[in-house]
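Reading is simple: the token line describes the chain's fold. The lines below illustrate.

. . .
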Amino acid sequence: MSLIVCLWRKLVRERDICEEERIVEADNLGEFYRFINKRISNKSSIGAIVGDCGEVLTENMDKANAFNKYFASVGVVDDGVNPYLTQETTLVQRRVPIGMC
């Protein structure tokens, strides 16, 4: 994971902690419940997308089919053959830290 992504996640988490502390210190039950309801509401819908022919897709099934068609077109069938790794590639792999965050 890149350093930028790690930094961004850290900043987002710090912002969330500041907001939570502000709500707790406000001692306002209404504000607390608004915060909780905002957190537990499900807003995971995908907005409208443009299909192959330029049409706007808003129905979930149409969007799912468009994504399926796209990912099927760029996917690769696994042929079961592993690529040949040179000694240089192996050395580079050993130097790259896993799980930087």
